[in-house]
Specification:
Layout lengths: L5 H9 L7 H12 L5 E2 L10 E3 L4 E6 L19 H24 L3 E6 L5 H8 L10
Parallel strand pairs: 3-4
Antiparallel strand pairs: 1-2, 2-3
Amino acid sequence: MDVHDKKTRSYNMSCIKSKNTKPEEIVRKYLFSQGFRYRKNDKRLPGTPDIVLPEYRTVIFVNGCFWHGHEECRYFVIPSTNTEFWVNKITSNKQRDIRKINDLRQLGWKVIVIWECQLKKEKSETTLNNPKNDIKAE
């Protein structure tokens, strides 16, 4: 059973942002401090990537662990109410993510996915400075 009534739950869900989230801001501030210049939410590219580095033909998606179904993550838990809806919603989000990443790669773009849990205080420095992410200036 949900702890909120339908109206309260609807209001709470409507307040969740899809752009300019805290995790996105963390990545953007880091990139800017390293001398990178980027575009935000470029609608000309498949999937409207959160961050676009045109000079490097690289896009970055900053995914919320819940909304994008981050497997084996403590922040991804299927709600116990309206479970069927949430399973379908998150599954379709994951399928859309795969499609948009494949579309971008076919267009010659490098794709980096950073998860919300990787940007928590104790992990953010390691994540952002990880050469595996290839977000270092040349």
